[in-house]
């Protein structure tokens, strides 16, 4: 897939892919560029537990979050 993602105050184009398992959740990963450097990221929700991580050059973390969602359909 492709689209735009907001980093800071600006929107940046990204390319990504997503895998969905309707009974367990999804995993999404993408790459965008900011100030000439690649930023690689991934979001996932599997069995109600979410995780997100974005890194400059795939090495240096710039954003990270995780948690549990008690609501599961």
Portion of residues in beta strands equals over 45%
Based on CA atoms alone, the radius of gyration comes out at 13 Å
Distance between the termini: 26 Å
Count of all domains: 1
Largest sheet: 6 strands, antiparallel
**Helical percentage:** under 10%
Shape designation = globular
Q: Total number of helical segments?
A: 0
For the largest beta sheet, what order do the strands appear in spatially?
1-2-3-4-5-6
Tell me the series of helices and strands, N- to C-terminal: EEEEEE
* Poorly predicted regions: none
Number of strands: 6
Q: What class would the helix/strand composition place it in?
A: mainly beta
Task: Describe the protein's architecture and organization.
The chain is an all-beta fold. It has one domain (2-68). The chain is 0% helix and 75% strand. The chain contains no helices and six strands. Strands 1-2-3-4-5-6 form a six-stranded antiparallel sheet, with no helix packed on it. It is globular, with a radius of gyration of 13 Å.
List its salient traits.
single chain, 73 residues
In short:
Helix content is 0%, strand content 75%. It is mostly beta strands and 73 residues long.
Tell me the layout of helices and strands.
Blueprint: E1 2-7, E2 10-21, E3 25-34, E4 37-46, E5 49-56, E6 60-68
Antiparallel strand pairs: 1-2, 2-3, 3-4, 4-5, 5-6
């Amino acid at each position: 897939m492709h689209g735009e993602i907001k980093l800071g105050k600006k929107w940046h184009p990204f390319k990504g892919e997503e895998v969905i398992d309707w009974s367990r959740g999804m995993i999404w990963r993408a790459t965008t560029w900011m100030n000439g450097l690649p930023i690689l990221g991934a979001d996932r929700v599997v069995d109600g537990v979410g995780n997100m991580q974005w890194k400059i050059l795939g090495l240096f973390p710039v954003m990270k979050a995780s948690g549990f969602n008690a609501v599961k359909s």
